[in-house]
Amino acid sequence: MLRLLVLLLLAHADGSLFLPPLEGKQGPEIALISVQGASSPVEGYKPAAEAIQKASPFKVWVGIPQYLFDLPELQFAAKVDDILQQMEKAGMKADHKVIMGHSLGAVGCQGYIAGKGQGKMDALVLTGAAVLRKYRNSTKFPPTLTLDGDLDGLLRITRQAEAYFHQVIKVGGADAPGMDRPVVLLEGVDHWSFSSGDRPSNVKKNDIQAEVTVEEGHAMIGEVIADYMSSLFGSDAEKAAAGAKIVEAVKKTGELVEPILAAMHLEGYHNLNPPCNSDYPTNPTCQYAKYPDKSLLPPAGPPKPMPPADCTCGSDWVANTAANMVAGFEKTPASQTKLVTKDAFHDVSDVRPFHLPHIFEPQPGTACSDPATCVINATTVSMPIYDWKDDFDVGLWPITASEFRTKFKSREALQQAAGLQDVNYTATDELNTEICKSINQAAYDWALKTASSKARDRFLKHGQPYVFVEDKKSGFGITGPTWIHDALSFTPSQDKKTVAVQSHYFPLKNKNLGDVSFVQTVGYHYCKLLSPARAMEWIYVDGLKEFYGTRDDQIQIVV
Ligand SMILES: *[C@@H]1O[C@H](CO)[C@@H](O)[C@H](O)[C@H]1NC(C)=O
Ligand SMILES: *[C@@H]1O[C@H](CO)[C@@H](O)[C@H](O)[C@H]1NC(C)=O
Ligand SMILES: *[C@@H]1O[C@H](CO)[C@@H](O)[C@H](O)[C@H]1NC(C)=O
């Protein structure tokens, strides 16, 4: 019995395997190390490795080390050396070394490249993964290919879009000379398409169904990785031809992530460009007027470091769409009134100094004499809320804002400023449970309209649509208005077929056309807003998992 156990343990400890190159291949000899994901058996990576060998014109050796307990962090460097030695013993004389990792294995590869493995590899391939944010500026990486599936339910497409923005768009586009970290998305491929066999439980729980067969997926993966190696290590002619194919694939990826990046820009997503601080303007295009620019306590002082000059001023969605919906000018004599709004990102609880929305023109205490020719110049304040779990940068949880805490001037205040008479606060704001709701519906409609037709059709067929319910009024607690912590809520219906979205609002009556001290809070309407990027992320990723995921509802394993 004990003997049997020892034998089993030994067998488990060394499941590492390698594949010698296929017969009849020419050109350079490549050592390709393929690092498994967490709890993902080594054997499962064989078919994709064989597809790479088949697609490449080169003599490709593939070594797939087995890590202790299948967890690739432990003994990383030793295992890499070990499998290289095994292949050398079997006759390998590698001209180039490439390391590739899947999922947590790709995280391990990056730690290795930035540490013990620095300079040892000629290329890095990340699959079901992305270059970690902390390594975005690292100069220690060799040329790096990021290869993912658009249906990856773990390393989500929104995170891939973020990678595309930094690695491709910011460096000048797919064919810019300095672009050495291409991002390629394969359509119909999910997280597990890079491996094979049974999904580990965490993958099962979170992945989205692939829309290509296992074999099709492996062939697609094999071709891109083979092209990538040819673009780096081939003869001049091979380099040019394969390089052009990679550029093509990166451009196609740009089309796939375009709707997502558009949504992230509308949000002002913090991991594209960092948010500005309107108290210390560094981006000359913001031109945000401060209000009240006063503090009862000593001001907090400048941020360290100062935001870069291309920081994001505020949310374009709030400034250009939401604010107009709060004003509700259409179907009133102010339908021709022009509202010019600027939004800034601030913590809505910040009082050093206070940050409040304001109407600058017409000046407080005055109103336009003719609504038809009126121009209102106003500001809003928004605080996007991000899930702290995304700080781990694993792509598993939503990365876009879960809500905007946005402070608007009220409909009453804006309509009065436009010159409308007898504005009824009870109707415009106090009992108006439609304002935040209608803005959130508009964010969702925009996302549905902007998503690719393929993503939209998939979501409408298999996803959990949002339905928007009336705003709920927040009250006062011991520490003031409860609105700040009354989160935008997402409640699945009993049959899970829909998800109800509800905002809290907090209205305050106007006084003297706003001509009062800032300590008197008058003429505000606060909302919890749905970010158009969160709606987009729901359509592409999270809204699919219930009915189009890979969860096996029949087998609930309770540990
Ligand atoms: C990376 O580099 C950019 C541009 O040089 C810079 O703005 C940014 O702060 C850097 N990020 C980190 C994390 O160092
Ligand atoms: C709006 O008003 C502020 C404060 O008076 C001013 O700085 C800004 O230039 C105005 N913006 C527009 C577009 O009129
Ligand atoms: C103001 O609106 C409320 C709610 O719609 C309504 O009950 C009330 O009669 C209105 N007041 C006036 C003066 O029209």
TrEMBL record:
Gene3D superfamilies: alpha/beta hydrolase. It comes from the Eukaryota. Residues 1-18 form the signal peptide. Keywords: Signal. InterPro entries: AB_hydrolase_fold. This is Alpha/beta hydrolase fold-5 domain-containing protein. The lineage of its organism: Eukaryota, Sar, Alveolata, Dinophyceae, Suessiales.
